[in-house]
Please model this.
Amino acid sequence: MTKPHAPGHDLVSRLRFQFETYGDARTFTFLRESGRHLVEEVTTLHELDRGAREVAAWLGARPEASRPVLLLFEPGDVEFWPAFLGCLYAGVIAIPAPLPYDERSMQRVAAILRDADSSLALTTAKLHDLLAAGIEGLGLDRPIQFVATDESPLADADSWTMPPITGNTVAFLQYTSGSTGNPKGVLVTHGNVLHNVAAISEALSVSPASVFVGWIPHFHDMGLIGQLVAFLNGVNLVAMSPLAFLKQPVRLLKAISDYRGTVSAAPNFAYDLIARRVTPEQLVGLDLSTWEVALNGAEPVRRRTIERIKDVLAPAGFKPSAMRPAYGMAEVTLLATFSRGVQRYLDADADALEQNFYAPAIDRAVSLVSSGEPGPGIDVHIVDPETLDELPEGHVGEIWLRSASVTGGYYNRTAETAERFAAHTTVGAGPYLRTGDLGLLHDGELYVTGRRKDLLIVNGRNLYPQDIEEFVQDVHPAVAGSRGVAVSVDINDSERLILIQAVKAELLGDAGYPELAAAVKSAVARGFDVPAPGVVFVNRAGIHLTTSGKVQRASMRTAYLNAELTDVVHESTEALGASK
Amino acid sequence: MNANRRPILRWLTAQLASYLEVSAAAIDPMRPLAEMGVDSVHAVSLVGDVEAHFDIDVDPTMIFDYPTLSHIAEYIGAAVAEQQEAVA
Model:
């Protein structure tokens, strides 16, 4: 633990210390969409603290609050914060969850309520009736009571008293992983948050003069912890909804320019979106020279995106050193490694990488992006996931973490928690968090190379599906720029590579599907020195994507094995390469 | 049918083609967007660009209420006409 700036090892004392120091001097500015414009709504930290005490005083007298309390608010809405902070102040476990918008997302909320055994949900007056009606008839054993926290005060703020809270008190459950029907809640303690916030603040040089600008919603760990970093450093915060950003990505840049923003965080796809949709005309008059940290995390960081964003934003004074890839996950509160402003890449030899070690590229190269160095108080180890031997620098293995930022496991899941959070190496070192991600350390920096479960092992060599997927793009114009997945399946006791690839029929030219399949097979076979893969061509709609546009390999693999692929236009998966 | 519908449809087709990185000829205005692999980020991008280009307010649920580009073009044509009448 780094030295505390303020008394107390719990989040509440630290937050209140900052709120008392900066209560009227620092603000949370929410840029609310009103028609086609953004309208500024300013709340002081003092007002947030008062609202939190009102909610906390009320929660203190509610027996249902002995179990986790669900929070359902509009993404970006400032009303979330008095409710969330109120839970913290009351020592009540909060669950910040995404607002449901259809049957499927409502089912996920129901599954979370079941998993956490909750019976109380906080929301706004506007959403109250809609949510209460929606949750009815979902077959929950325990009735759920919805309460609006944004109307008249629920209790007198001055009647709140600090309950006994320590660093080990659970602050909130982060339901980020697991399928719709089987969500897993990461158990984050007050001590976890303080440790990770201290690491982030130090690694990114956050000071009270920083200005945070963002759009990541509070139910995403990057949004939630990001805003807590702001509060715990007493900085000004400017936020907009994800919808406001996605409609007009230039709005984020304009807010950074207008408010002299210094820190903004987003997943890689958002930087890609900015690079593709922001025009040179829109950049005229914007000044991005104050932007010190453009954190890039929560999904694989692409070299092409980093290079594109630097070029596109250079005319507005964007500093190349601002782009900061980072690596982390909810299981370690948020972040484990950070780039410190000098971006490194490795051109790794593809053959060596398949043998699980790094060597400078001789022939076929794979470009790896550094996710930076471990944060203060965070140990990163690379471990062979089969033998559990710790591996030296330059070797690819599973990323294992040890830190006070590593969370308390999954709520009410003892076996999965023990397996994931209490791993030991062959020599008995531990406990470590097993991330399930693969990577290597080189000169003290972490390079993430893939996810363990997506790994393809063909003829004893490890192949990374994303490498094959990228490679296929260059085979023919009809597949360039289209999504595809490379998965491995077991056929007759051996692993077989299957490519499921979207095709633009209009760009086939003189070739037919059988010719295109043949070209892809021979190119992949030659390029990766593997037996010709099976090939399935589909229309664009046949590729399963997440809501953020990532390909879902596991889901596609299952669909293939169950013969449930849709939009198939051609299949050529006979082991001998005959088309059917 | 609104007389402005054709240029609106041409503009919509060009926008969607740029998001999907395909040629405009590959976009079928009668085909539901979901079937063409339009994800939520593309859908919201389209709403934002429609608002800025036509200077009208668009509800993000437009994509659900008007499932094809042809439907969306009708909707935009009507909204623009309504706005011009309000100004006149």
Summary: The interface with chain A takes residues 20-23, 25-26, 34-37, 39-42, 44-45, 47-48, 51-52, 55, 57, 60 of chain B (CB under 8 Å).
